[in-house]
Design goal:
Length: 64
């Protein structure tokens, strides 16, 4: 999950977050790791990343 904070490519974050969210729906440990990263990226990310974070939060039924 470190790529979500270090990769300069916005498209990697955009699609990588969605893939991680899909796996997190069935893996509690991944979900617990993903939530704080989503919140951080939502706060500092580009508009496309922030939009993806909000959609993922809705999908996973979590608050950002």
């Amino acid at each position: 999950m470190e790529w979500s904070e270090t990769d300069a490519s916005k498209i990697v974050a955009y699609y990588g977050l969605q893939a991680a969210a899909t796996f997190a729906e069935v893996d509690v440990a991944l979900l617990e790791d993903l939530i704080p990263r989503l919140r951080k990226l939502n706060a500092r990310g580009a508009k496309t990343e922030s939009n993806r974070c909000r959609k993922i939060a809705k999908q996973l039924e979590i608050e950002l």
